[in-house]
Amino acid sequence: MRRLLFLVLFSASSVSFSAQNLIYCSEGSPSSFNPQLVSDGVSMNASSQTVFNRLVEFKKGTTEIEPGLAESWTVSKDQLTYTFKLKKNVQFHSNSFFKPSRALNAEDVVYTFMSQLNPKHPLSIPQANYEYFKAMELDQIIENVSKADEQTVVFKLKRPEAPFLANLAMDFASILSAEYAEFLIKSGKGLKTLETQPIGTGPFVFKSYQKDSTVKFTAFENYFKGRQKIDQLIFSIVADSTVRTQKLKSGECHVMSEPQPQDLENLKANPKLKVLSIEGLNVSYIAFNTEKKPFNNKKVREALSLAMNQKNYIDVIYKSQAQAAKNPIPPSMWSYATATAAVEYNLEKAKKLMAEAGFKNGFETELWTLPVSRAYLPNGKKLGELVQADLEKIGVKVKLVTFDWPTYLEKSKKGDHQMVQFGWIGDNGDPDNFMNVLLGCSAIKAGSNYARWCDQKFDQLLQKAKSMTDQKKRSQFYLEAQNIFNQEKPWFPIAYAKQNKVISTLVQGYKIDPFGHDNFEGVSLK
Amino acid sequence: MIAKIFKILLSFLFITLVSFSIIRLIPGDPAQNIIGERGASEERLIEIRKNLGLDQPLLMQYGHFVLNALKGDFGDSISSKQPVIQEFKVLFPATFELAATALIWSSLLGIGLGIFAAIRRNTFIDYLIVSVSTVGFAMPVFWWGLVCIFVFAVQFMLFPVSGRIDVIFDIPYATGFYFIDAVLAGDGAAFLSACRHIVLPAFVLGTIPLALVTRVTRSAFIDISKEDFIRTARAKGLSSSRIIFKHIFKNALPQILTALGLSLGHLLTGAIMTETLFSWPGLGRWIVTSILARDYPVVQAGLFYSMVIVFAVNFTTDEFVKWVNPRLKESL
Amino acid sequence: MKNLFANKSFSVGFTLLSFFAGLFLLSFLITPFGYNQVFEGQTLLPMQSPYFLGTDDLGRDLFSRILIGSRLSLGIGLLVGLLSVLIGASLGLIAGYFKGRTDYWICQVMNALQALPSLLLALFVVAILGQSLLNTIISVTLVSIPVMFRLVRTAAIVEAQKDYIVSAQALGASPLRILKSHLLPNCMTPILVQTAVCCSEAILNTAALGFLGLGVPAPYPEWGTMLSDARNLIETAPRLMILPGTCLLLLILGMQLISDGLRDQLDPKLRNRS
Predict the structure, then answer these.
(1) pLDDT of A296 strictly over 70
(2) Predicted pLDDT of residue A4
(3) Residue of C123, C227, C228, C242 to mutate for B, most B C-beta atoms under 10 A
(4) Gap from C165 CA to chain B (nearest CA, Å)
């Protein structure tokens, strides 16, 4: 009996540790595994960054574009035609019920984009909200995507779009398998399965997902850029940041997302860990839902902004890890309006404006607080309590509400909120990516304009800027746009935060990404 | 016998009625609550209502609900888009393992301590045990859990503070009980990892039942040992241990069993707290997160399964006590 | 009455309770700072003046927050105890006295309420009603009514059979009069004991709901919510967790000791029923 126990205890232990298993402590559960439908970093990390590739991709750790699934491309002189030549012999994954019969070809690219462009496309998901596609206005820019031959795809645009190539490097433009989609429909499993069982060309194959617990991937043997050194990639979902930090310290995970600012000193001093830091391409804010009263009243928005003590928020919530925000784009972005005045804190002025707006006795409202910890906002609940305390001084009673991350996103997209906390990490290094997606008129329908603010002058400036390629000329328009933003105040901007990642010293090849993604391609363990 | 079956059926009816109504009691459109308000247009809502059968008369809806409940079909979770029953199948063994471990250690230790205290009545040890168990019984389990985490995991780094097992392990699913499955798969390291992970949560969860069982055992023993027939046994010259175990213990058993039954209730509530504290992937945490997330299909299933479990536990305990009692009387 | 204080449990419990009652009253007279007052740049200060117990991670005075939190814990506990007596005990007396169909139907409702352990039931009630101070009170009251009801009903049934009640009926006294003047006074013992138990359970359930994030909403400094907030800071500022938690523990302990003491003195037969 004792011998049996001995055998049992030591039998498989040696085997499981010779493989390279990288464990990533993530802070939330992905809302879906279909990159076309997700807009949050957590879901992107678990889908597009692991399972998929795009036509062009960002060189790791930079905002430069390099070939992805496309080995080369040409752009017509009038900038209305983009022709991509696809790499040959790029394989798709298999899973327990699907095995691809062919390599990647133009049909997959055509399907990926046309299904998002045309709701009547046979493989388009019925009633789906292709939010990012719409927010980047690709539904108004792309006229057609067609197959020229097996390895060549042609994009025809309705108008020139300077950031077009950069847009194709974004997560929502990940290339899906047309064969898989057809199979899902034919077998009766339905296109909904794309959200729970993804198939892509990427370095890791999706294995399993346990809600609020783990997501597991295995290395794709036939990855076109070479089989990864990591055999198993495991996302351990731990919502509590203290627990994430503990797990990192104890070696239970190798990479941790979203360290708390107050833990950074501690972590930097730890010889087994390494803290990576980069200026964030991000901004955090509280959006006023300008479609609802009283936030449709500019005076009210101004009053509320004056009553919120931005400096204190940055000290308490971010420690020294962020700068005070004033524009909707961060300082590292070109065309940042340095001349904008800093956010003012003035209670007297605030009370006066409230009286002028007819709210001398204040009013009651709700602030939705961010349920996940992000670099741009490490603790939404605590910030909410600070805002609550501040606004009480001008008679505004704030109720704090939160939901789990996927629900938070869903409801905000619909505009159910009054005031809501959000942040944004840039996707492609272009100011349009911030201002259009977050404040453009077409973004209201797409759901990403949480202030639900549509200013025609502002929008036109953005449209004009998009249509040209000369950065200097575009800057002029963006500067003017920022001016309008600062007068109308659809947001209360909070901070531009540093992006920090903490990894174990055993991890090699991990590069911190300006877009905040956690990408494990090319990463290995010592 | 027929009365018992009738009682079970009636309870089942009641349970289904309550879980059926919960979604309709929540403010808002049941269609939107069930599918999670996915930015639905009016036509989409009509379509959803048709799919969910919400346009049918209530009685028919109820009938469908009962049939589906028997099949285990509660729809899909809004936040994970996976069938609710699938989630339940994985989570139930986790909670059961935790509760069973906690129950076993707390009842064994509790009975032991209770007897010990009763024997050493009114000594310092007795006072100690009584005070500690009084305090233990009053303790909010979530506070106690935090203290334990602080001492054992943070200060001394002895035990992991979250999860059921190290994430690298992939135990092939046989029963869902990690201890059994790990042995079946011959994976010793996984077994050890599961052991390490269950220590703190089971310790925290079992503390209040421990306090309860200790108190009840002790007072039951003291009461019974005052009784006449015990005095008679002593007078007869029977040895102490014989008296203790044969006579007192058997007579105290009904009270102890009742206390154990009560502690099952504490275990269920405690499980919710403990699972939240230790990120233990069980039913308790599932219910709490789904309420916070307004994931109503899960809330409904959670309510249903909670009531079923509570009913099953109470029923079994009652029957067991009824079965044990006459046998005890016989053997004396 | 003097015997009561001689009882160890009762006196210790009473001392504890008086301490918290003192805090409760104090919170109305002097609070060094507002519970919601944020002090810029004063986050996570250890115990030092003027912040008697230091500050929390948002720069709020811990002592004031605990003081005002006592209002919530003790206040809700007593309120719920009172409500469950009013509702539960009245229903119990009615059911026990009138028996028959009234009794049957009330019992069924109470059975239904007891289908789940109290915290679970409170959770689901909050799930339906939403999260607010009022809903916390409602759900916690709802779950404490059945036990009170049961206890009083049993006592009422026993009393109702006694001679003096029968004679009162024969003399033509109205049911209301009988309930008020005869049944109630003679059932006071179990009612008193159970009230203390209800109070302690209510305090625990309120804190439990607060800890899970479903109780009294921010910024009210409810002790359970404060515990949950302190989880992140176990390493940096353990006192944020230890102090509110200890207060909670001592308050509940005090209530329980009082109920134990009352039970021991007034009706030893009720022991081992916890």
Answers:
(1) yes
(2) 53
(3) C123
(4) 34
